Amino acid sequence: MARLADYFVVVGYDLDKRGGSEGQGHILQRFPEKDWEDNPFPQGIELFCQPNGWQLVPERERPSFFVSVLTDINSERHYCACFTFWEGLDNPQLQKAEASEVDEDEVPGLVQPAQVFAPKSLVLVSRLDHTEVFRNCLGLIYTVHVDSLSVPLETVIGNLLTCVIPVAGGSQINESPVCSLNLSVPQALACDWLLGCFQDQPGQEEREESLRTITLGAGDRQVIQTPINDSLPVSGSSVAHLFRQLGIVNVLYLFCAALTEHKILFLSSSYQRLTDACRALLAIMFPLKYSFTYVPILPGKLLEVLSTPTPFIIGVNSFFRSETQELVGSMTLDVIIADLDGGTVTIPECVHVSLLPDPLLQQTQTALSMVLDPELEIADHAFPPSSTQPSTLKVQDKEIRAVFLWLFGQLFHGYRWCLHIIRIHPEPVIRFHKAAFLGQRALTEDDFLMKVLDGMAFAGFISERGPPYRPTDLFDDLIANQVERIRQEECSPHKVMNHIKELAEQLFKNENPYPAVAMHKVQRPAESPGHNDPKNLAIFPPLDDVTVQLFIDHAAAKLKTAPPVVKAELRGMVPSGPPLGDIVDRHGHVLANSARRLEVVRNCITYIFDNKMLEAKKLMPAVLRALKGRAARVCLTQELNQHVLQNRAVLDDQQFDYIVRMMNCTLQDCSHMDEHGIAAVLLPLVTAFCRKLGAGITQFAYSCVQEHMVWTNMQFWEAMFYSDVQNHIRALYLEVDEGEQPTPSHGQQESGPAAGGQELLGALELASEQSRLWPTLNKEQQSERVQKEESTVFSQAIHYANRMSYLLLPLDTSKNRLLNRSGIGDVESVSNSYVTNSIAGSMAESYDTESGFEDAESSDVANSVVRFINRFVDKVCNESGVTNEHLKALHTMIPDIVQMHIETLDAVHRESKRLPPIQKPKLLRPILLAGEELVMDGMRVHLISDGREEATGAMGGPPLLPAEGAIFLTTYRLIFKGTPNDPLVGEQVVTRSFPIASLTKEKRISVSLSMDQFIQEGLQLRSCTFQLLKIAFDEEVASDLAEVFRKHMHKLRYPQHVQGTFAFTMGQSGKTLVEHKTKDKNQSIKTLSKNLVKSAKRTIGRQYVTRKKYSPPTWENRSSQQSELDEDEISVSEELDQGSLTLSSTIRSSDRQTMSNVVERACCRDYQRLGLGTLSNSLTRSKNEPFRISTVNRMYTVCKSYPGLLIVPQSIPDSTIQRISRCYRQNRFPVVCWRNSRTKAVLLRSAGLHAKGVVGFFKSPNAPSAGPSQADSTSLEQEKYMQAIISSMPSYSEPSGRNTLSGFTSTHMSISDSSDKLRQPKIGALMKQVMGGKEDIPGTFSRGALGQRARVISLSQPRVSGKARNPPGGKWGSIRGSGRLSAYNPEVGNRLSSKESPQPNGGPSEALFLRQQRAYLYIIGDKTQLKGGKQDSFQQWEVVPIEVCDVRQVKNSFKKLMKACVPSSATSESSMTFHRCLEESEWMCLLHRVLQVSVLVVELLDTGSSVMVSLEDGWDVTTQVVSLVQLLSDPYYRTLDGFRLLVEKEWLSFGHRFSHRGAQTLASQSSGFTPVFLQFLDCVHQIHLQFPMEFEFSQYYLKFLAYHYVSNRFRTFLLDSDYERIELGVLYEEKGERKNPQVCKSVWDYIDRLNKKTPIFFNYMFSPEDEEVLRPYSFISNLKVWDFYTEETLSEGPSYDWELVQRGRQERLAEEVPDKPDTTTPKSQRHIVWPCYDSRSRVVPDAITKLLQDLQSLEAELGLPPEKWKDTWDKIKANQRAEAKLENRPSFNSSLLMSSNLSHQRRSQGVYLPESGVGSSINLAMDYEASTTSTPVAGRPSTSTLYSQFQSTESENRSFEGILYKKGALLKPWKPRWFVLDKTKHQLRYYETRKDKDCTGVIELAEVESVIPATPTMGAPKHIEEKAFFDLKTTKRVYNFCAQDRPNAQLWMDSIQSCLSDA
Could you tell me which residues are beta bridge partners of residue 432? Predict the structure, then answer.
């Protein structure tokens, strides 16, 4: 029974404390005035009566009612029903104003009303939540007051406060109200009547009636329905309202947020709605109870509560919306805001609400929508049922709650199977095994359930519902009896709905046990006309407290005398419901472990115990794979259990080793939670299996399985402990009750809940029975049982302290691996507990010091283990009620237990070291190069598989990795050599290596191997040769040794100086490696360079030499300042005096030798080949040569990074060059590097200008300058230089004088005029693509742009004052027409693209004929450099601005490319596939950009314009472009010698910074690896793929260079320039100075030597055409990933160190040859080729290589002197050609592969299409992309152009080809021609000869009418038979043909006929 109302309070406006804008309320009266003992009066009620603040209002408002909820310190909720009405009072402001005339606070101009209204609240405080009853009672009191009824208010209030009702049980009131005062009793007699009341009780009939009602004595009566079961919440219709306000999805978000402990804030302008919404949210959380801050209505004054860090559910009036948002905003924005009025839920970005697991979420949403919107389902029905209205709100409310009840039934079913009961008496203590629950449900990964189980609400749920003997409710029934039904019905929504309706019915019945009872009779205030008239309304009177108190005292007295109401509480055993086990199977989460796998596990264990070790070894890999599955792990534990006798199983060494490996493998895949209870079952086993090590020393398995996280997880130990305690307590009561001994199997006794279903049931049943019997026992029996239980727990605690020390103390106590890693050593640890304990720390410390062991080595380990065990013991003992004495005893024991165990372990450790080591594979030695030495001998490591799947067997093939072997560090390489772990592949040798110089990243990793128990330290080493070594050090490798290895590796990777690299130290002793100085090889050059610098300093006028970093000079004084080299430390700040640096003054006679060396360099040989000048005496040099070789840089004074000899225009003196060089970055001024032999156009290279723009070129004299017109002179000299280059071109000096197109074509081009017109737009298209990237800002034609342009012109006007100029305004229109505005220089767009819109009639546009001429010189410059310069007035040169990729882009792109091609770990993310990563690296885009620019330059040179490439510092992109242009334009560079010359000239002599870009030394380490040269080689590889017959060298040659340019094996690619090479004395030593023939210092010599021996670098398809210019496709779709990046050969490592590979193969062959010839079994000739293991090119060579090899071996057998392969090849080729000429064969299949018939392959790449009228199909494709318009050529059928656009890149279709005689036109003879029948283009073409590229004529098959046999005509070939002739009749004429013989003719006729019929 409970009081309906505890307190009645009247709260009014406090007139005395009125201050500022807000008033205050104060309590006027409260009843009773004394607090109840069981329920103190809640503080702060006045705040909650007016949550918005106490304010006076000018107009009376209507009375309001709401219920606030206050929570007291004991978490009891008090419901405060507030009924507020407004009373009039005279305006205090006016009264105050009259009293004091002048009021400062007065706001002028506001009219104050005479009367204002103050709020007054009647408050009822109760612990019961009966909103409607409260509303009625307070309403009645107000009515009595307003309508002045004749009932005294004291009576009504007295009755209200004495009303007692049952809390639950469904019966209404079973006690009549103490007083039912009738209206007839006059007020004066009330007290007397009261006394009478107590004397005579009403009769039985009235009692029955009053059973159901209460009355307050004002003629009212109410029925109170109390719920049948008070554990179920009462919700009225609040849940239904909440769903209506917010919608399904929003409420589900709030529901999940509340369960996962987020902060939730409700906003509404209605207080009652806030209370209802909060109540509804709690109602749907049932059976969980919300245990955090819960304030449905928060007063405005307490808004700071919102900044609490704990979770909450709070309601705030919308009036405070802005304040709450400020508050919430100032916090971490982690509050979820639900706006009830707006229907929105706002979840901040930083909050992640975990939602229900997937199928459940969907099912819940479906069920909710069926409840809330039943019409949805039948909305589409043709004949919908007549009515499908949703239920009434009250019923709907219960249906929604039923859905959530059903949801919890699914979430929590089976939870009782995971309860551990650890004490029964005096109170049950229950713990929940979370890991087992999640594991059985297969929901360990589920975020939502994890958070719910860890939450406070669930902890409360367990402590409330865990006890096995208690009253049950609807939820217990659901869990116990309806799980099966839920499971079967979950897929059928209608069955689910039926179930939900049943549940809803029960919920409704619980809340409304007597729905039929007639409802209330309560007066309401009369609505009379003058009702609101203030005069009629009296002030609420003060009440007589004596009278009210009298009522209360009488009631109290009566209750004392009344007999106590004993309500029998129905307690019983709580049923557990079906166990969890089979649920998982139904979901199929049990891993598909076939019976076969379990069989393998069982067999293996049987073999081990039967000592059949060989059999076991074979099965081992399969077992370790099978153990990934849970079923196999369980099977393993069961099998091992059977071999344990009396808790012990002694094994021999090998058995022990295998068992430990299996245990480790099993534990390795267990998470630290051990959700499947595997570790729990293994725990007793690891203390059972052991081996004898020596006299009395036994090693147990636990010392070998410690490296698993599960042992450091406190929650695991707690669950294990509780499980064991439960078993023991169960055994205790089984003995007590039945006197029979329990005989559970060992495994079950130790196991968690997963193991034995029956046993667990027993424990809870027993506990329930014991709880029932407890009251019947006498005191002694009770205390005896409590003591027994307590000592059981205590003994288990000791047992666990031992167990924990076993698994936490490492065998070698000096290594504290496990504890350090998991942070056990910290005082805090993750735990399930909500109990905090202070004893732990203090006790642990004191006992540690007392135990007195001071062992320095192990004390830290011991301490951390002791601390961990202490924390565990404190926690479990407190929870399970162990006495303090026992706890202290434990704390004293633990350090001793640990110390004792450490001593035993030391002995075991000593003995275990003496064990013979396990047979590990012997370490294989690598083969070393001559001069390569080991720095560190092999360390045993495991090579782990990385992200490449080939070697792991994932793509098919054997699992070669992981492999076990050794890592070797030599002066040159890092080598791993070993054998695969998988014994089936065991005899293969796995080798992975890379040059130490190519290491780009080293990273420490920790790896756990499936085979071994330890987590090993490892390294991940990445090399830029696209190799990755992921190694884990074996446990025998000491960690300090690994550190030494790292240090050595770093020292070798980044030597102090380039002389420390392998190319220099090769062959020297490794001891000198650290720091050594070699004697200078070339003393003279060393001194020369020093003298140079000295003499330069001497000649400086003002001599101050500063050491500073280079910074670009400012705009004003740029021309006067000498630019310095980036890395040159000495900067000279005055100009050099020109005269003082002549050759004779600086070079001594001894150094003249150097000049002759310089002349021998590659560049000079090439200049002479190109006819670019000779080095003869300047007097005798013919003056008409346009260029000369200048020696101005012979001492490297002008530019350190250029070669000594440079090609410059004849007319430019050296002094000018020195001045010009200063305008360019790094002094790299323009020099000629190649000349087109046909058009005589030249290619120049230079760095970009120093300036921010081209202003250095064309600088206006007005610009302020440092010296008098110095800038002007430099700029003029530059112009002169450009003019000199232009003048050198023949086209410039021709009579026509200008490079007009007509002149150009007639002089140099052998293409017809029309074709040139077609070619024209193509360059424009190329140019546009090159100039405009997608990033271009599309130019808008604006005034600003024009204005700026005009300004630039006016600046530069004075220079050309005399000459007429066209105003540039007219150009803009056409630029706009071309679709892209170039903001840099508008004329380029016009002159190059010259694209106008075609005329409407389709004819060529006018502008095609009036096209402007092309410039003589194009300067390819960087966009960022070229702003603001003016154009050359005569348009003789033009600047093409392009975007270059800077080195940072290349560096980053390369890193991503490496990660794409060689990923460090396998990934399952779809976003990380190889192609996606490749695309993200943008490597292909960079190649595309470089190729595109190169093709543009090739086009320009080919059409007769010179080009100057002037990008960045002139040594990266410039070098790439210039080299590619020469390679494409000049066939010589596509030979082996030519390519070498190209690289030597453009890359080495012109100073590409190989050392800097390759980060070869310590100094350049920070700059990182930037593979500019590799990018160039990749571009060459792309061109090679498209034109396989144009290159003499093979793809392997390019890979070889790519590998060795970073390997540092050769000196060729070391250092940054010729100057540095001379200084170090390495430039000229390569010739004639070889002391050791074995050691090649130059990569070129090595290649030459190797090329003589083997055709590895030769391309058999090499069949060049004369003077062919290549124009490759550069679109990304045409580029292929270079296999250099992805291929590997694990059998021998990289194949680029040829001697190693050869020696390795010989050794392997030697091993394979048996000692004695085995005659019995024929040896198979088959050889299995494994991808990524074997080198396919060697095992399956191409036909020609194979034939050459066979020839060699035959020569060797016959004893002939071997002939060089090249001679053989050349002979065969010559014979072939001769034969081909002799017999004109019609078919080409009989000739050898290398015959020139292969020319069709060349066309395969779409290189040459004479019939399309366009130079090459690339142009067409580009035109197409740039959408330029081309005019069709008249008289040529358009189909051919159509076909050529879509021509396949694979191969031109030649359906049939051969020789036919064709009769010429009238009076012309018969001639043999090569005919090609092309089905695709539908034509018959003929050529002069087979080799010819240009076809002589075309017969369109579309025009052919018939093909018929014919007879010979006049002049026909004599010796051919008649039947060989046939005619082809077309619409225009008849062609006569003659084949070689009759079948051939028939073949031709049939072929043509089939073409015709196909069409």
Answer: 419
b/e burial code for range 980-1003 (CB count within 10 A of at least 16 → b): bbbeebeebbbbbbbbbbbbbeee
Judge residue 1836's burial from the number of C-beta atoms within 10 Å of its C-beta, 0-12 exposed, 13-18 middle, 19 or more buried.
middle
Q: In this structure, how many other beta carbons lie within 10 angstroms of the beta carbon of residue 330?
A: 10
Q: Which amino acid is at 1196?
A: Y
Whether 303 contacts 472, CB under 8 Å? no
Distance CA 1493, CA 1509 (A): 10
Report residue 344 as tokens: 């929105």
The Cβ-side half-sphere exposure at 1798, using a 13 Å CA radius, reads 17
Q: Which long-range contacts (CB under 8 A, 24 or more apart) does 607-616 make?
A: 608/655, 608/658, 608/659, 609/643, 609/655, 611/652, 611/655, 613/654, 613/655, 613/658, 616/658
Q: How far apart are CA 1291 and CA 1297, in angstroms?
A: 8
What are the tens digits of pLDDT across the range 1485-1531? 999 999 999 999 999 999 989 999 998 888 899 999 999 999 999 99
Which residues in 1399-1417 are b (16+ Cβ under 10 Å) and which e? eeeeeeeebbeebeebbbb
What pairs with residue 29 in β-bridges? 10
DSSP 1420: E
- Two structure tokens written together for 114: 């005479």
Total-model pTM: 0.55
Q: Give the Cα separation of 1045 and 966 in Å (integer).
A: 13
Output DSSP code: residue 1853: -
Q: DSSP letter string over 858-921?
A: HHHHHHHHHHHHHHHHHHHHHHTT--HHHHHHHHHHHHHHHHHHHHHHHHHHHHHHHSPPP-PP
Average pLDDT, the chain: 74
- How far apart (Å, rounded) are the C-alpha atoms in residues 1624 and 1025? 27
Predicted confidence (pLDDT) per residue in 335-345, tens digit: 899 999 999 99
- Starting at the edge strand found earlier in the chain, the sheet holding 697-700 runs 649-651, 689-694, 697-700
How many residues appear in the chain?
1959
In 3-state terms, the chain is what percent helix, strand and coil (to 5)? 45, 15, 40
Alpha-carbon distance 1318 to 1327, whole Å?
16
Residue 1615 to residue 1563: CA distance in whole angstroms: 12
pLDDT band at 1364 (very low <50, low <70, confident <90, very high): very low
3-class SS at 1227?
Answer: helix
Q: How far apart are CA 1880 and CA 1851, in angstroms?
A: 11
Higher pLDDT residue, 355 or 1411? Answer: 355
Which pLDDT belongs to residue 445? 77
Helix or strand or coil: residue 1244?
strand
**What gap in Å lies between CA 1823 and CA 1317, rounded to an integer?**
13
Query: Nearest Cα to 1437, choosing from 1262, 1295, 1224, 1281?
Result: 1281
Q: Which of 858, 727, 742, 721 lies closest to 794 in space, CA to CA?
A: 721
Q: Are 11 and 121 in contact (CB under 8 A)?
A: yes
User: In the structure encoding, which two tokens stand for residue 1300, read together?
Assistant: 């007009």
Helix (H) or strand (E) holding 1439: strand 1437-1442
DSSP state of 1852: -
d(CA 1053, CA 1680): 32
Token pair, residue 1494, equals: 């190169």
Residue with tokens 């099912």: 363
Cβ-proximal residues to 1628 (8 Å cutoff; 6+ apart), any chain:
1082, 1157, 1622
Q: How far apart are CA 1610 and CA 1606, in angstroms?
A: 9
Q: Do 42 and 125 form a contact (C-beta atoms < 8 A)? A: yes
Say whether 336 sits in a helix, a strand or coil.
strand
Average pLDDT over residues 1175-1185: 55
